[in-house]
Design a protein that fits this description.
mainly alpha; two-stranded antiparallel ribbon; two-stranded antiparallel sheet; about 50% helix; globular
Length: about 140
């Protein structure tokens, strides 16, 4: 996802800026709470300066608006992504935790994509993300 990856990069950049401003190390991974409810994500993403919400449909709509591909392709991507079990949105942690990571001390990488607690977006949904774009003819 062109915009998705870009937005994720932007959230990490925001995290870096916040980290420098607050002397807290910024998150360098796309950590999100897979166990939190949609309502909990909404509150965290709108009422906290340490979480940022990425809405997949909005990102795809922005990519269509920017002319990266047409609306039909955007619908294809969203349908394919959702069909592969992709989440509608992610509220990612942009500041905090051990060494700036909320899962920084985790040595068992499998638990970072198991759908419970803190996960990383790309290990958990990378296949769905890249598969949706590739399956709809969008190259990276």
């Amino acid at each position: 996802m062109h915009r998705f990856a870009s937005r994720l990069g932007q959230s990490i950049a925001v995290a870096a800026a916040l980290g420098l401003a607050t002397a807290t190390t910024a998150a360098a991974h796309e950590c999100y709470n897979a166990s939190r409810s949609e309502q909990g994500n909404l509150k965290a993403g709108t009422q906290s300066n340490t979480w940022f919400t990425l809405v997949v449909a909005d990102i795809i709509a922005e990519e269509v608006e920017e002319g990266l591909y047409d609306a039909e392709t955007g619908e294809c991507i969203l349908d394919a992504y959702e069909g592969a079990g992709g989440q509608a949105s992610f509220t990612v942690k942009v500041v905090g935790g051990k060494d700036g990571l909320i899962a920084g001390g985790v040595t068992n990488q499998e638990i970072l994509s198991n759908g419970k607690g803190i996960d990383h977006i790309f290990p958990a949904y990378g296949e769905a993300i890249f598969g949706a774009y590739g399956g709809c003819g969008v190259e990276f």
